[in-house]
Write a structure and sequence with these properties.
Elements: H1 10-26, E1 31-38, E2 41-49, E3 62-63, H2 68-81, H3 105-109, H4 135-139, H5 156-170, H6 174-183, E4 203-205, E5 212-214, H7 224-227, E6 230-231, H8 233-245, H9 253-260, E7 273-275, E8 280-284, E9 287-296, E10 299-306, E11 311-317, H10 325-339, H11 357-362, E12 364-368, E13 371-377, E14 383-387, E15 395-399, E16 405-407, E17 416-421, E18 427-432, E19 435-437
Antiparallel strand pairs: 1-2, 1-11, 3-6, 4-5, 7-8, 8-9, 9-10, 10-11, 12-13, 13-14, 14-15, 15-16, 16-17, 17-18, 18-19
Helix pairs in contact: 1-10, 2-5, 2-6, 8-9
């Protein structure tokens, strides 16, 4: 019997609302919206406001700042999947005359291009885009802080370049490409470059007094792909579902999974977090979260997705600083994951078409030297190789059309596993990137590099008196 748990339990909902209420009070923000996505559906949203009877809801727009970058990254990945560009292409191949053309598209996506964090001149988030009419105005005279490719350094100008790249290759404005290729297919009708009522106003709250000032809302111009968007909790829930599972109308599951993988070199001791291809990565409460934070004057926002838990947390607020949206979004995921842990999928046998006697004969124990490993079948004729004791190098492998398998994760990612046969057709060993796995540890006659001692295994010899 299968039971559906679409709605959260009342106790879980009360705990979530309490977390949002604390965030609004301690963050001293006019309003705060939180939301939870489970298995692709928005299952809870709640809010608190400083004005009684005027609390925002999941359909109220907030500015989401740098969460915009994830949308821009998806547009670039679509160009890659269509074969229009490669991620290791230098920017100059597709966007001429920037002066930073040696930077690759992948380095821009991962913020490892060595570019400055901000545009030169006036605070770009709070000044007119008319001050930066050209890319040269965004990059300035000294766009590089370090050589490209050496480490992660967050760069808003880098995503400005990616937005211009999208416009160049699509022949249409970034805003139009975004709407046609992401927002409309995913049903995100309340996400836009300009606010559409109902929307929150942006405020600055005095750090030492309970008073406020309205923040200006500027059009970011060329820098829009780095942080322009307005969105709602309901729309971000749809985007969270896409980031967890992919959507062939926008970007397939394999490409979205590629975006989620760590891709940018970070400094020493920084792997509490990292960066993929347009996505921030965070390790918190024993789980990996992917998504992005965002801020612009008057607003802060965060979207975190735990793919393993099938959960996402969304936090939106309309204050320049104070609310800890990143921590709150992560807490919303944790609260549900701990109170209502995800039910595992039922065990099911593999489809008949994916199993044959030859594959079955390869399962069981194999030895790399004296290390014992087990090989078992996975879905779609894939295999899993895992140590039988200790941590070791566990890896999943996808079947290749011409035989063998390619590693999907860990040490063996991208490496080829193949079956090596003797002249009579019997299996000699498995070859994994030159590592030899045999059925017995160092058996005589096995194809072990360096050979096997002819005397075979032995015990200790009696101590000889001197």
């Amino acid at each position: 019997m299968t039971t559906s748990f679409e709605a959260l339990l009342p106790g879980t909902e009360r705990t979530l609302l309490h977390r949002v209420a604390v965030a609004q009070t301690e963050g001293r923000t006019p309003s705060f919206v939180g939301a939870v996505v489970r298995d692709g559906a928005l299952v809870w949203s709640g809010s608190r406001s400083c004005v009684d009877g005027h609390a925002p809801d999941a359909d109220t727009q907030f500015r989401i700042g740098s969460i915009t970058k994830v949308f821009t990254a998806v547009l670039v990945m679509r160009l890659r999947d269509e074969g229009i560009l490669r991620l290791d292409d230098p920017l100059e191949r597709h966007l001429k005359g920037t002066g930073v053309g040696e930077v690759t598209i992948a380095q821009l996506l991962t913020h490892s291009g060595g570019l400055a964090a901000e545009a030169p001149g006036a605070w770009w988030e709070r000044s007119s885009a008319a001050l930066r009419p050209e890319l040269s105005d965004v990059l300035g005279e000294r766009p590089f802080l370090r050589s490209p490719g050496h480490r992660h350094h967050y760069s808003n100008p880098g995503y400005t370049l990616l937005g211009s790249l999208v416009e160049e290759l699509r022949g249409r404005p970034w805003e139009e490409v975004l709407r046609r290729e992401i927002l409309e297919p995913l049903g995100m009708g309340r996400t836009a470059v300009d606010p559409v009522a109902p929307h929150a106003g942006g405020w600055a709250v005095h750090p030492w007094a309970d008073v406020m000032l309205p923040e200006p809302s500027e059009d970011l111009g060329l820098m829009a792909p780095a942080g322009q968007l307005w969105s709602t909790a309901a729309d971000l829930a749809r985007f969270a579902a896409f980031l967890a599972e992919g959507d062939d109308r926008v970007l397939g599951a394999a490409s979205v999974a590629e975006m989620r993988a760590p891709a940018s070199p970070v400094g020493e001791g920084e792997w509490e977090g990292g960066y993929g291809l347009g996505l921030q990565l965070l390790r918190r409460d024993g789980r990996t979260l992917i998504g992005h934070t965002g801020s612009l004057p008057g607003f802060v926002a965060c979207l975190w997705v735990s793919v393993e838990d099938g959960l996402a947390g969304i936090a939106l607020s309309n204050a320049t600083s104070g609310p800890l949206v990143g921590a709150v979004a992560a807490d919303l995921v944790r609260i549900v994951a701990e109170a209502e842990p995800r039910l595992p999928e039922p065990w099911r046998p593999l489809p008949e078409a994916e199993v044959d006697e030859e594959l079955l004969s390869l399962t069981g124990p194999w030895y790399w030297g004296t290390y014992a490993y087990g090989l078992r079948l996975g879905p779609e004729r894939g295999v899993v190789l895992e140590p039988l004791r200790g941590a070791g190098r566990r890896a999943r492998f996808r079947a290749l059309p011409d035989g063998g398998w390619v590693g999907l994760n860990g040490y063996y990612e991208g490496e080829t596993l193949r079956v090596v046969r003797r002249p009579d057709g019997s299996v000699s060993h498995l070859d994994l990137g030159s590592f030899v796995f045999t059925r017995e540890p160092y058996a005589p006659g096995d194809a072990v590099p360096g050979g096997v001692d002819e005397a075979g295994w032995r015990g200790s010899e009696p101590r000889v008196a001197v």
